[in-house]
Amino acid sequence: MSNEEILHAMVQRATRRRFLQRAGAMGLGTLAVPGLLAGCGGDDEEPTAPADEPAGPAEVPTASGRVDYLSWEGYDIPDAMKAWTKSNGIQFKTNYIANHDDIQGKIKAAGSAGGFDLTTYYQGYKQLYAQLEILKPIDESKLPNLENLDEFWGGDLGNFWVDADGTRTGVPWTWTPLGLTYDSAKTSELPSHYDLLDPKFKGKVAVVDDPTGAWAMAAHILGLKPDEIKKADLAKINDFLSQIIAQSSGVSPSFGDVTTKLTSGDAVVAFQGWTAINKFAADAGTKTIKHSIPKEGGFTACDCWAIASTADNDDAVYSWMNETLKPDVHAAAADYVIGGVTVGDAYPLTSKSLQKLYPAEQQAEALEQAPLYNNPPVESDEFVTFEEVLKNWQELKAGAEA
Amino acid sequence: MSATAEPPTTATVVAGARRERGLRAGPLLLTAPAALALLLFLIAPLATFAVYSFLTGSLYEVSGPLTLENYREIAESDLNRTLARNSVVVGVLAAVTSVLFALPIAYWLRYTASRWKTLVLFLMVASFLASYLVRIYAWRTILGTEGVINSGLGALGVIDEPLTFLVFNRFAVTIALVHIYLPYVVLVLYAGLAPLKPTYLEAAQDLGAGRVQRWRRVVLPLVAAPAASALLFVFVLSAADYVTPQFLGGRTGVLLGVQVQVAFSTGDYAAGAAISFALLAGFLLCYGLVALALRVARVDRLRFVS
Q: What is the pTM of this model?
């Protein structure tokens, strides 16, 4: 199935799901559902809420108390959620992560002792998180604003946030295509990822310490699917990534450090570049940092709100998630994190600069050029696994296999 | 005049015995909270991870049976060997450089600084208040492609192209680590020199010892033990560091501590524990070697005499 076919199928499914949600909200009841499904020709359609949940008008729980947040700094969207926090008297405790693996690490370490309520995950981690059982299923009936999600993002796209059985574990709220970020004062736009290997960029390429991201990018460039790379093909990825890393001055521990390298002249271009770097750099006074998707494309990272398995204040998390799906709040959040919107009605409310970065009319094209991928499988005899990718990356970083 | 000792009464004996017991129990009671804290927060986690290091790790879990597989993998891994070599090189360089720089500063503070002493000691302590990361980034600003050194040399016409060997390598990591640990080492050596009164040096001079001989035969033997402590302190912290190498180390300056951090953050507790204990074993070996060297040099039991 081509990307185009997948997109088409996703949109169709999402449209049906959205219709069902609205039908539920209008009080049509469950009896009408089979007929509607038959009418849509979809016998594989799943209910949107877990089977044991009664259908009914969506109602968001009342938020109160303390919310323990575990995710990236910035994803706590303080400005956008200021009114919500104040009006509900929420004590919002932030626990920032340094890299994505901190999420599962900290939730697993917290275990039954509890601790974290609200978290996020990048869609590629869904399979791992399902296996680790660190996410609670989300009751869609408690998220009336879920219907605000775009058709594309509202569906069970790749089981990233809605499982095959209809159980939702995430609410997609921001996305960004990863490509190349470069200093336009020092180089023109690079048409291809392979341009990074030009000797003139020796020591001038910034690479962020994101093993699964680098893996996805390399796989996509080489025309492979990151989650279906045969063990025999590992050498292809290694060969490409080791050449990229050899062009760098070392792997940066964070995107913040990538930004610093670009703005200080220690790097000219960043592999796995991110649009937010432009903003970080501009805030630091460098207006020449730009983002592009080369001809080979890239991959898209979509982050979802989720309820951690350690949560003890689910109601407040539902209220938070619901609030962020309001167009005005969503737009403010998108502007804050420099991310694409998943609520279509929020788009016109975003800043002109964000709209320039994420042209609405080019969304489908952008997502086709930079698709959403799964991480490598947790277990597989045939394909390279998640653990193997992590181990492999450490060796590449230290140059053992360069 | 002689005082006649009166025979102790039973009450006096009992009170004395109580006081003696109290004196014996006092230190135990005083150290109990610290000992308990150490047991709970150091010994227990160490023991747990010691066991983990002999188990099989999977994502965020460990399971039996006991195995030496983790240690075998460490021994056979090219990556770990590379990182261990980097750790030893950077650790030794940082430690030796720190002590070599700190010793004259401590000596100056102890014997020559006079009215500057308080100010310099204050500045030493004040440097601890600066954020670790800020100090690392300060070195990026100094050593970077468009940093202070390259810009300065470029402006003076000394170089046409920026010097690229200044940053993102072991050299940069070592410089930053020396900068970070130097104040600690100065304070340790200053404390080590504090009991060495100027009269010692004057006595040596009176006995015909020249400047070099005074250093070699009086100062260095007496300061050897604190210097060795400082050396080990910097070596252990530098060789196991995982922050500085990520920001300044580039590809050649990655240390073994980074591997420990990666193992734990990606859920391979067994491998992380095994690497940690391998590092610990290496450090204990270094401690033993330094202690042996002090003993062979017969400076391990030297004490200042008032």
A: 0.81
* Domain extent listing, chain B: 10-52, 73-296
Terminal CA-to-CA distance of chain B, rounded, Å? 33
Q: How far apart are CA A337 and CA A354, in angstroms?
A: 10
Inter-chain contact A260–B137, Cβ cutoff 8 Å?
A: yes
The parts of chain B modelled with pLDDT lower than 50 are 1-2
Q: How far is CA B251 from CA A122, A198, A242, A245, A270, in A?
A: 27, 19, 11, 8, 16
As a whole number, the mean pLDDT across chain A is 85
Q: What sign does the CA torsion over A186, A191, A197, A198 have? A: negative
Candidates B123, B102, B111, B78; CA nearest to B226 is: B102
Helix (H, G, I), strand (E, B) or coil at B62: strand
* B70 min Cα distance to partner chain A (Å): 14
Q: What is the DSSP string of A232-259?
A: GGHHHHHHHHHHHHHTEEEEESSHHHHH
| B177: contact with A, CB 8 A cutoff | no
B255 touches chain A (CB under 8 A): no
Q: Give the ipTM of the model, two decimals please.
A: 0.80
Residue B215 per-residue DSSP state: I
Contact between residue A390 and residue B266 where contact means Cβ atoms under 8 Å apart: yes
pLDDT at A52: 47
The burial class, CB within 10 Å (0-12 / 13-18 / 19+), for A254 is middle
Q: Residue B22 has what pLDDT?
A: 73
Determine which helix (DSSP H) or strand (DSSP E) holds A364, and give its type and residue range.
Answer: helix A363-369
* Pairwise CA distance, residues A248 & A246, whole Å: 5
Burial class (CB in 10 A: 0-12, 13-18, 19+), B89: middle
Q: For chain A, positions 372-391, list CB contacts with chain B under 8 A.
A: 378, 386-387, 390
Does the domain made of B73-296 have the CATH classification 1.10.1740.10?
no
H or E segment and range at residue A270 = strand A269-273
Q: What is the nearest CA distance from B35 to chain A, expressed in angstroms?
A: 26
Kindly report the nearest CA distance between residue B176 and chain A, in angstroms: 17
Instruction: Compute the distance between CA of residue A238 and CA of residue A215 in angstroms, rounded to an integer.
Output: 9
Give which of B280, B303, B219 is closest to B53, Cα–Cα: B280
**Which residues in chain A (97-116) have CB-CB distances under 8 A to chain B?**
98-99, 101-102, 104-105, 108
